[in-house]
Structures are given as C-alpha cells and as structure tokens.
Design brief:
It is built from 15 helices and nine strands. The chain is α/β, with parallel strands linked by helices.
Amino acid sequence: MSRHFLEIDDLSPAELASVLDLAELREPPAVLKGQGVALMFEKPSARTRNSSEMAVVQLGGHPVAIASAEVGLGTRETPEDLARTLACYHRVIAARVYDHMALVRMAAAIDRAQLFVPVVNLLSDIGHPCQTLADLLTLRQHFGYLKGLSVAWIGDAANNVCHSLALGCALVGARLVAAAPPGFGLSAETISKAVALAGSKGVISESCDPTEAVGGVDAIVTDVWTSMGQESEAEERRRVFSKFQVDEQLVNRAPSHAVVLHCLPAHRGEEISGEVLDSSASLVWQEAGNRMHAMRGLLLWLMGGGTHEDNGDAALRECSGAEDLLGEQSR
C-alpha cells in the first residue's frame, strides 16, 4: 500500500524529522528520473505550483501541471477514475482541491487497486500539510531545533493552514497558542487531534487577545483574513479581525528573538503590516523558498528515502503494455 500524504499527521514524528532532513540535501539523488508527477490544481496556485514543479525537476522527474478544466474532477470524471488513470502515467499524484474528500477518494482508489502511487495534498479545505513542512523546516533552520519552541498563531485559526500547523507543532513537541476572535478559533477536532499526537494538553491553547498570545513566544505566524472562496465575506472579516494585525506594536510585545512567518500571499495592511513583512524579524521569504526544499524532501522520502520500501513498478504493471516498458527500463 502506498504512503499517502493527505495531512501532516500521516507522518510519525520520526518520519517527519526524516522528511526535514532530506529537505536539506542540496544534491539529492534523481529518484524520479524518467518518471512523471501529476500536479493537479482546482485552485489557482503560485508558490505551490512553482515549488512543486522545481522539486520534481531537481529529483530528475517530469512535472505535468493539470488545470481544473482539463479533468473536471467530480463532474467530468470521478476522483477514483482520475486517480487510476493518472497512475498509469505518473509516479506521484499531487492535487490542490476544494474538497478534501476528493483526495481521500483518490487515495482509496489507488489502495484498492494495490498500486504504489502516493497521493499528496497540495492544499484542501481541511489542511495544507506541505506548508507546514516548510514552516517547520524554516523554524528548525533558524533555531536549530523544534522541540520546546513556542508559536503564536494570530488571526483566523479556523482555517486549513492553522489546522495543519497545530498538528505539526504537536508532532515535533512545539507549543501553539492560537489567538482569534470568538467563532474563529481552532476546531474541537483539531485540538483533540493535537493533544492526542502530543500526549499532552499543554501543547495547544487559545486566546482572544493577540497581545497575550505573543508573550514569551519564539515565532508569530499569520495568514490572510479572507481565504479563497470567502471573498463575499471580506468586508465583514476586515472588521472582525481588525485587532489581530501582526504589526510592529504586536511584534514588540514578543521577545526580541521572535520571528515572523506568513504563508503568502500577504495582504499588506490587513493581517500583517508591510513594515513587519519586510523587517529583520521576518523569515517569510526563507519560508517561501523552503516550500520547494520541503516538497523535494517529501517526494524523496515517498520514493524510499525514508525507512519504508518503494514499490513503484506495481503502478506501471497496472496499465496495458507496461510490462514492455518495465523491460526497457531494466536493460
């Protein structure tokens, strides 16, 4: 069965550490040489597409970006049928989708067919685990460790990025405090999963006061107040979140060593001020660059760079004429 990556906790703490270690390799092996990686985007993408395509190229593979109109996921073709088809051509299937269940169905179809083609979540309504990999990699590079770090999330804690970050912090032994207006906090499910992963209730907490939340933390993280699909709520959200901007005044309430992260794109003057985004405390551009390195580490791990066995040839055998292809590859 394939090791899929639909959420950050699909990895154990040791496996997550391995992915981050592999992300640091600057001359990785060409484990995808001569193989394709499907990158499907139901939502617009800038960093995710660029970072994913370049990560595939750096591993010797051929990235194929697929727009939503080209597949009609769930309308023109079911997620199951699409996954089985793409598995005939590609070594990995990665997708940025509106509905997380589409990824679940794709992965289940791959498993039922006993193929060995990992499905990777490039973003869904539930989580953004690839962003969390980049965030953790950035923090580890800066501080030299992750266990024991304290992170403050400021803004919409009910969104997908915060969900994955909360689970990621729990996996590595970091503490997360989420500061959000009432009704925009972490879900009960996220809190429960984080506590279970960490084995401690102290790993996660909530606050309605951003000033209180940043006290004593090592990192401040934020995201846009209005995500894709919420544009009609933008004006109301600006009102609700007006006191949750990461500006110089808020950053000055944190310890002097605290750093700032933002997954981008940033709405300067809303969730973060331009002064903070461009300040010496900001690791935002390093974080953006680490999207590529983290993806490369993940793909390398999925291809057998970790402790699990890679069985990619089984996917090729599923498709007509693949035996001849395998024979050519072995000569």
